[in-house]
Structures are given as C-alpha cells and as structure tokens.
Amino acid sequence: MIPIAKPIIGKEEQDAILEVINSGQLVQGARVQEFEKRFAQLCGVEHAIATSSGTTALHIALLAHEIGAGDEVITSPFSFIASANCALYVDAHPVFADIEPDYFTINPVEVEKHITPRTKAILPVHLYGQACDMDPILEIARKHNLTIVEDACQAHGAVYKGRPVGSFGTACYSLYATKNITTIEGGMIVTNDAQVAERARLLRSHGSPRTYEHVALGFNMRTTDLNAAIGLVQLNKLQKWNSARRENAAYLSTNLEKIPGVVVPKVRKGCEHIFHQYTIRIQNRDTAAQKLREKGVGVGIHYPTPIHLQPFYKQLGYTDSLPNAEAASREVLSLPVHPSLTRSDLDYIINTIKEL
Ligand SMILES: *Cc1c(COP(=O)(O)O)cnc(C)c1O
C-alpha cells in the first residue's frame, strides 16, 4: 500500500527526545521557547505561542481576540470541522462563505456578501497548503474593521505573493502527525499583536501569569518540551520536504492533466503551494477511490461532507446552500504526494488512474 500520509520521524528526532528525557526538563522549558522563536521566524512575525493542537490554537486565538457571544466569524464550509467549531467554542456563530472552485479556498466575493453588523472576524483556511486570495480578503477586513484569524493548519511554509502565510493577521497551525511537519500532536499561534500574544499565553495555561495567580479563565492547552524537541528537528527539514512535495505534485500533474475526467490542482499565480494534499477532481469519484485503494493506492477524501451539511451543523439549524463546496465534496480525491514517495510509486499511481 502506498499510504496517503507518512510521518517521517527518524534518528534525529529520537535523539532529540532522549536528550529532553535525560535533561529532566519535560514541560514548557527551553525547547518550547526555542521552537516558538523558530516558528515565528518561519512566518516572519513577532510572536509564537505553542499549544496542544491546531484546534486549541484556533480556540485560544479567537478568545485572545475577544471574539465571543453574538459575534459572527466568516469561514469556509470546505475544511476540517475545527475551522468552524472554534467559533462555537467561544459562543460565536460560524458563517459560511462558498469557495472558489479552482482553488478550493474561500471566495472573497462571497465573504463580503455575508458581512453583517455582527461580523467580527474572517477565518480564511489555506486549504491543502495553498494560500487563500489574501489581497481582497485583507481589503474587506480593513473596510469593515474585521479581525483576520488564518487557519494555516495545512500551510506550513506556504507563500502568498511573496509574503509568508501566517503573517496576515493572527494565524494557527497544526502539528498533528500527518501535517507537513509534526510534533505528533501540537499547534502554534503566530501574531504580530503583542496584546493578543500575551492573552494567548495566559489562556494556554490557566490564565496564570505567575504560579497560582489566575487573572482569567484559562485552560491547560500547553505542549511539552518533548513535542517541541521533535518540532525543532522537523523545522530544519520543512523546506526540503515542501520542495519534494512540490516536485511530486508537478510530476503527477504533468502526467494526469491529459486524462479525460481528471482535473489537476491549480496553483494560484505568484503563490507557493506546499501540497499538504494533492487533490484532483475526478469523475465517478467514489468508484475511483475504491478501485485505487483495491490496487494499493492510499487515497483520501478531503472532505466528503462540507461543514454546513454535517449532522451536527444541521441540528444547529444550518440550511445554507453552497454549491461550490458541495460539488467539491462529491468530486475531490487526494493522492499521495508526501516526500517519501519514489518515482516508481508516482508512476504506479499515474498508471492506475490511467487504467480506470
Ligand atoms: C488539522 C487541521 C485542524 C486541526 O488541527 P489539530 O492539530 O488536529 O487539532 C484545523 N484546521 C485544518 C484546516 C486542519 O487541517
């Protein structure tokens, strides 16, 4: 089986973990701080706050921006559920704006249509490792005085017109095992806003600026030095791995684009896609997925149900019709693109699709 994702945790990571264990300093020590510093540099921002997951990063980021009851947060219906759930965690209301069919990211024109006096934030999701169309989104945010919280959980190292993803507002990353780099479980908030950074730090650890002094209702959403030690090793490899993903994607696209019934992913002009997922549209998707799996190609469907059509969101009363997101859910198929693939793996994937 050629897996859809393959975390690469090797000797260097093992050594880094052992070093932490032997040092006796396992939680929130030097490694976490160093990891935060390095991650901030990656995004070209001032502050980074490591968390226990991408989901907790999103949760804390919204709280740190004082988004709460009655506020509306505009996000993409075509994402992992956490992109919308984070608004619910803080008693805000997720509002869905449909996507651009070419890039699968939120359509700025649709964002603007959904703005009301209660809109407080836009939460663009850089899906599959490709930046949203940030220029018009920033313009809308400026015009309506809205906060931007980027869901960059799939976009470590992605670039939008020369500017790193994660530098447009406050941004959240996931470091889960299958992302482009991992700490096994983990997340990161990055921001240039010193006040937001300070609040996020407090909320991450029981609202506690000093031991047993609590100034806010916080949580335990910390990470550990063990996780950070892995992350530090992984950060050194990110650019190399992203390049390998881009090369794999280019090879797949060159060979797949001529096949009738297949639409290969488009890269936005002037942007660097990091191919967290390599996602095609394909006719008779479900049959294709089944046949590929039978032949040993680990494919994924990201995502089979848009968020507004999830049973839980229907229970909440969502009745949106978002045709681009709904069509994408029926047609998308993610193929393996990770750095461990060999040329013969890629040829096998291509030939198996040709045979369909
Ligand atoms: C992975 C992911 C998350 C959640 O991250 P976790 O670390 O799994 O909590 C949120 N949004 C998107 C788009 C993701 O891909």
In short:
This protein is α/β, with parallel strands linked by helices and 356 residues long. The protein has helices at 11-23, 30-43, 54-64, 82-89, 108-113, 134-144, 194-204, 225-256, 285-294, 311-315, 323-331, 343-355, and strands at 47-51, 72-75, 93-96, 119-123, 147-151, 159-160, 163-164, 170-174, 187-191, 262-263, 271-272, 278-282, 332-335.
Question: Which SSEs are present, and which pair or pack?
Answer:
Layout: H1 11-23, H2 30-43, E1 47-51, H3 54-64, E2 72-75, H4 82-89, E3 93-96, H5 108-113, E4 119-123, H6 134-144, E5 147-151, E6 159-160, E7 163-164, E8 170-174, E9 187-191, H7 194-204, H8 225-256, E10 262-263, E11 271-272, E12 278-282, H9 285-294, H10 311-315, H11 323-331, E13 332-335, H12 343-355
Parallel strand pairs: 2-3, 2-4, 4-5, 5-8
Antiparallel strand pairs: 1-9, 6-7, 6-11, 8-9, 10-12, 12-13
What does this molecule look like?
About 40% of the residues lie in helices and about 15% in strands. By secondary structure, the chain is an alpha/beta fold. It has two domains: about 220 residues, Type I PLP-dependent aspartate aminotransferase-like (Major domain) (Aspartate Aminotransferase, domain 2, 3-Layer(aba) Sandwich); about 120 residues, Aspartate Aminotransferase, domain 1 (Alpha-Beta Complex). The protein has a seven-stranded mixed β-sheet, with helices on both faces. It has a three-stranded antiparallel β-sheet with strand order 7-6-11, with no helix packed on it. It has a three-stranded antiparallel β-sheet with strand order 10-12-13. A hairpin with a 2-residue loop joins strand 6 and strand 7. The longest helix is centred in the last third of the chain and has 32 residues. The model has no long low-confidence stretch (mean pLDDT about 95).
